[in-house]
Design brief:
- Chains A, B: It is an enzyme of class 2 (transferase).
- Chains A, B: It holds the Pfam family AIRS.
- Chains A, B: InterPro entries: PurM-like_C_sf, PurM-like_N, PurM-like_N_sf, ThiL-like.
- The structure is a homodimer of 351-residue chains.
- By secondary structure, the first copy, chain A, is α+β, with helices and mostly antiparallel strands.
- Chain A has two domains: 144 residues, 60s Ribosomal Protein L30, Chain: A; 169 residues, PurM-like C-terminal domain (Phosphoribosyl-aminoimidazole Synthetase, Chain A, domain 2, Alpha-Beta Complex), CATH 3.90.650.10.
- Chain A has ten helices and 13 strands.
- The first copy, chain A, has a seven-stranded mixed β-sheet with strand order 8-10-7-11-9-12-13, with helices on both faces.
- In chain A, strand 4, helix 3 and strand 5 form a beta-alpha-beta unit.
- In chain A, helix 4 packs across helix 5.
- The longest helix of chain A is centred in the middle third of the chain and has 18 residues.
- Chain A is globular.
- At the A-B interface, helix 1, strand 2, strand 3, strand 4 and strand 5 of A face helix 1, strand 2, strand 3, strand 4 and strand 5 of B.
- Bound molecules: magnesium ion (MG) (2 copies).
- One magnesium ion binds next to strand 8 of chain A.
Chain lengths: 351, 351
Amino acid sequence: MFENKDSSHTSIENLGEFGLIDHLTKNFKIKQKSTVKGIGDDAAVIACDPKEELVITTDLLVEGVHFDLSYVPLKHLGYKAVIVNLSDVYAMNAEPTQITVSVAVSNRFPVEALEELYAGIQAAAQLYNVDVVGGDTTSSTTGLLISITALGTVKKGAAVYRSGAKENDLLVVTGDLGAAYMGLQVLEREKEVFKVNPNSQPDLEPYSYLVERQLKPEARKDITNLLKELEVRPTAMIDISDGLSSEIIHICKNSEVGCNLYEDKIPLDPQVIATCEEFNLDSTTIALSGGEDYELLFTISTEDFPKIKGNPHLTVIGHITDEKEGVHLISRAGTKIPLIARGWNALKNEE
Amino acid sequence: MFENKDSSHTSIENLGEFGLIDHLTKNFKIKQKSTVKGIGDDAAVIACDPKEELVITTDLLVEGVHFDLSYVPLKHLGYKAVIVNLSDVYAMNAEPTQITVSVAVSNRFPVEALEELYAGIQAAAQLYNVDVVGGDTTSSTTGLLISITALGTVKKGAAVYRSGAKENDLLVVTGDLGAAYMGLQVLEREKEVFKVNPNSQPDLEPYSYLVERQLKPEARKDITNLLKELEVRPTAMIDISDGLSSEIIHICKNSEVGCNLYEDKIPLDPQVIATCEEFNLDSTTIALSGGEDYELLFTISTEDFPKIKGNPHLTVIGHITDEKEGVHLISRAGTKIPLIARGWNALKNEE
Ligand SMILES: [Mg+2]
Ligand SMILES: [Mg+2]
């Protein structure tokens, strides 16, 4: 049963379900003092701090829908699967503390492939200081699927919802937008080139920032602290997973307000601008609909503007209006264009 | 885009990801006072009670591995997917409070199929008094996959682990064993009969208990309270998902003890005994390895025996020994047979 002709390809069947989880998580360390019991029982046990509230969020990544293993290394995939969940925790103004990780995988993946995946999960858990406290590993009849649930804590009453934006508030975004989507375009082009000529040596150097944003995104763990230091409490907040446009619409719908977004204020990296030109794509459209940027979008009271003014991480891109005024993009030419949720929709990507 | 020739088969594409979640969960009500914010933001927010600890557990169910839609109605599947998680919460001596539900589904399922699935999820959530506070709905390239995470609360320090069993403790099981597995055998036989003769009318009446245990299992929500009333605190506890044999081994391994299990004490329903005879299967083997019973297995100090004696829900099936004595089944004939974990292994069920 434990025979292996090729020692670098161990079948997952050889380890069994229990052996597999133990094997994959044996190097994972518990660091959060709130983790009373991690992996290894029917459930994990977490201590409660009476001064805090808990947040919980979950995300599912499916092969062939959310990722393509022909250009996403498994280690990066594991890392990204953690990041997309932590980003939602930060978007509540909370600090992530624990995650559970469930993986369904077909027999075409050897144990070594799962080790790579879990190495990425561990790397993210370490950098973001979260404990992996549970999970499930099972077989699938086809591809790979990762389901992660993240827990976090926030000072009681300090959670920031999508629903708190008020008329005249300023709309602020962290970092820059559109790079992850353009990274995907570059990788997909290389995949097509490779199909035609398997000896081609892609030069990804001019696209390094884009490719990194796509393959190894980070969540904005710095922003919660930055805002605390600046003594700014956002009135509403969301993270940008589906594209700026659909996230603005979420805030407006939940807060029952309108919004004017200024095209010339949208922060773009020079690589995004150059690559959009090369691909003959409109960079504003990409920033609005690209998604997977994992930046934070929030609203602040105008009184707080002096506190954030000039901060290199934060850009004011619009302001909140009365609901009746609707949600609009004000173009560079001054035209008012209704904003629609064209964000990437997982359910429409399927044939 | 919203055209529908057959109004009873709405394509999930027509609703989009956000519309779909809203649609499926619109009747879900929040009942737990600890749920500060449910579905509808980046994360749910849960209040912490300083007198309590939190438990968290997660389970993944994959079509073709854990269930076969040719005989499992979607409503039952949704119900069962919740139950398997709640069972783990009860196994910690905790009360379930919230769940998140993620579903990956291919286009071959119309919206009506997902409505059925969510109706089952809602039915279980209602009966067990848990709030559905989050989740994710996405497409899959093939089958159906359900990932549920459950939260629960337990009085601080009152969680019962697998690791607390002591020499001389009694091994106790709730309910009876093997019925869910025999229900599966009956359903699989009917499926084969149906393939040969699609007009056959199966008479499932003699197997009603077995089929119900397979298709609509319940978690033992009564036991935590019963034990509290009896003033019995288990020294170790686990739920029976993979079969009595492997769960006993988990307790023994984690508690560093041995165990003698008595064959003649294992509680079996008359339908299990009769159907095992009909299928020419050994009922002890089925109870040991069948799995999916979702009963609770726990150990108690011998001092507590008078408190549970004669209780119709509880059966003493063995006692804990020194680790050196190993883990054994004492057969009806008095023979000592080493117990091995032959519990159902999801990773080996794949071809
Ligand atoms: Mg369990
Ligand atoms: Mg989000």
